[in-house]
Amino acid sequence: MHQIVLREPGQFFSHQTPDPVPSPEQALVRIKSIGVCGTDLHAFAGRQPFFDYPRVLGHELGVEIISTPDHSNLAPGDLCAVEPYLSCGTCHSCQLNRSNCCEELKVIGVHVDGGMQDFMTVDPKLLFRSQTLSTEQLALVETLGIGANAVKRADIQKGQSVLIVGAGPIGLAVLQFALAREAEVSIVDLSKSRLEFAESLGARPLQQVGTEMFEVVFDATGSKEAMEQSFEYVHFAGKLVLVGLIQGNISFFDPTFHRREMTLLSSRNSFGMFPEIISLIESGAIDTRPWINHRLPFADVVNHFDELRGTPNLIKAVINMG
Fold first, then answer.
1. pLDDT at 146
2. pLDDT tens digits for 189-208?
3. CATH 3.40.50.2000 assigned to 2-140+288-320
4. Which site from 53, 171, 220, 284 is most exposed, i.e. has the minimal number of CB atoms within 10 Å?
5. pLDDT tens digits for 256-297?
């Protein structure tokens, strides 16, 4: 099979390798669509925390089942989203039913090889079927899960004022679930085209915040400067949720933090939300199809992946297999 390996920052290597052979407990899947996210772009640039090279990228996956264990309720031909989180099941976090922050967590496409290959083996419990969604839609379920978990962490209430800093795919995912909770959502970004797209989904667009404050603020930028500035936007007794992450330290002005008695939260991955998210997409409550405004054939990844970082007005790119 054809496999693409990120050998080191900025260098993909394409080669042929034997097809994987599933164990009796594994499913064999054909990769159909791969969502490209900030993790992949940062890994390519050498700026992704918790990352080792060489690595096969690809953790936002829409796949077709080739074979499954006899005890599985899945069948060959089923189209599925892949939950890419491999938890240990025994650590403190897992025992608290918080396996998204498992102490030994490994993520497909980050800590172990991912979907930039024709086939892979997967534990069936990580596969979530849809009878109506395309593999492109299924590939974006993981992105939505990041936003769903962040909104769950914030415990947003109806009518609360919410600000999302960053209108990339993660910010848009937060937006979808904040709107579902009937919050009053504003979003700030430097990109006019991204703001226009967020406005079409129901957000109030802002190119700058000024002195306005919000009850709940989400930072979805992965920018040190933006993350630190986000503390200034949080209202008295408000919450700040850091969804994006950086490889370094951030700081804030402690008197403001204490005087407003802010609650500071982090949000990592998601857990147990794929069925709900797939149901919401199937019902039409969430539609990620307009997000995808760039498609890259798998055969072009080696020579053209780097161009995604400079693609004008990029919202979401998807790699499609032949």
1. 96
2. 999 999 999 999 999 999 99
3. no
4. 284
5. 999 999 999 999 999 899 999 999 999 999 999 999 999 999
263 strand-pairing partners: 239
What is the model's pTM?
Answer: 0.93
Q: Above 90 in pLDDT, residue 8?
A: yes
Per-residue pLDDT at 284? 93
**Mean pLDDT across the chain:** 95
Mean pLDDT over 103-132 rounds to 96
For the chain, the three-class secondary structure string (H helix, E strand, C coil) is: CEEEEEEECCEEEEEECCCCCCCCCCEEEEEEEEEECHHHHHHHHCCCCCCCCCECCCCEEEEEEEECCCCCCCCCCCEEEECCEECCCCCHHHHCCCHHHCCCCEEECCCECCCCECEEEECHHHEEEECCCCHHHHHCHHHHHHHHHHHHHHCCCCCCEEEEECCCHHHHHHHHHHHHCCCEEEEECCCHHHHHHHHHHCCEEECCCCCCCEEEEEECCCCHHHHHHHHHHEEEEEEEEECCCCCCCCCCCHHHHHHCCCEEEECCCCCCCHHHHHHHHHHCCCCCHHHEEEEEEHHHHHHHHHHHHHCCCCCEEEEECC
Contact 77, 70 (CB under 8 A): no
Give the Cα separation of 263 and 188 in Å (integer): 21
* Residue 299 confidence (pLDDT): 95
Domains of the chain, by residue range, sit at 2-140+288-320, 146-266
Q: Which CATH number fits domain 146-266: 3.30.43.10, 1.10.540.10, 3.30.70.100, 3.40.50.720?
A: 3.40.50.720
Question: 189 vs 206, 220, 265, 294, CA distance in Å?
Answer: 7, 10, 21, 20
